[in-house]
Design goal:
The chain has 166 residues and is mainly beta. 10% of the residues lie in helices and 32% in strands. The protein has helices at residues 23-27, 30-37, 46-49, and strands at 4-8, 62-67, 71-77, 86-91, 94-101, 119-127, 137-141, 144-150. The protein has a 4-stranded antiparallel β-sheet with strand order 1-6-5-4.
Length: 166
Amino acid sequence: MTGLQTLNGSRRLSSAPTYGDPFTFIARDVDRMIGSIFGHHATPSKASAEGGDVAENWLSPRIDVFDAEDHIELSAELPGVEQDDVDVSVLDGVLTITGEKKSTRETNEGARVVERSFGSFKRSFRLNDTIDADNITASFKNGVLLLTLPKVAEQKPEPRKIAISG
């Protein structure tokens, strides 16, 4: 068990084609797949739960999770997102990554093809007791957010000698 359980996907705010792209069908199940890796069932995003359009999850950052002996590394691909537009927080045992991918244009007037998506995203993960939430670190380089989640040092119980009086 790695200590992470995915809680939600993101909600897409702008339009993108929902046809002809096989990856849009995969996007709705990404949270569920990540959750199953850790032996948990992920909570589907609001769009999936309501039978919403798969494209609503389009901006959900792709996540890789690696379990090392003393920490977990979580990396999120955020292409086109500026570091200042990303927030990472922990509250009540839930790690949340939020942000926004902003358009470089004011309008799409005159556009012939617009396939890139813009808008807000949010991903949340429930941390279990094996994660030291107070010492999580984050770095951002080349559109990749890297979180290091240290594990709590396992304390092995040691026998205690009890003096016998008499």
